[in-house]
Amino acid sequence: MMSCGLHALQHLRSIGQKLGTEVIRSLEKIAQKQKFKKILVHSELTAATFYETLGYIRNGNIYQEDGVDCINLIKSIESSNKKGKLVKQCLLFLSRLFLKFYCNHHCV
Question: What is the pTM (predicted TM-score) of this model?
Fold first, then answer.
């Protein structure tokens, strides 16, 4: 059985992580609007897993900053809308190519 204090601490951590996620996502949207393509984070090693859950990838070696282990993490933030357009264009091209091939081989 979990003690009340431990349960409360875990609940606060959960709330903090949700708020942290919202803050990072908001900053990513601002960076996208400013046409940034990548974000580089200088993170304490203890926070690296949090950033990794948001799609950041470790970049480089662990280093010391003010006596604390740190790591850089990077994430590509190119607009998903551009990626979506590219996927739609590829699918349209492939469907046209298939129809052309099918008609050349099966249409009278």
Answer: 0.62
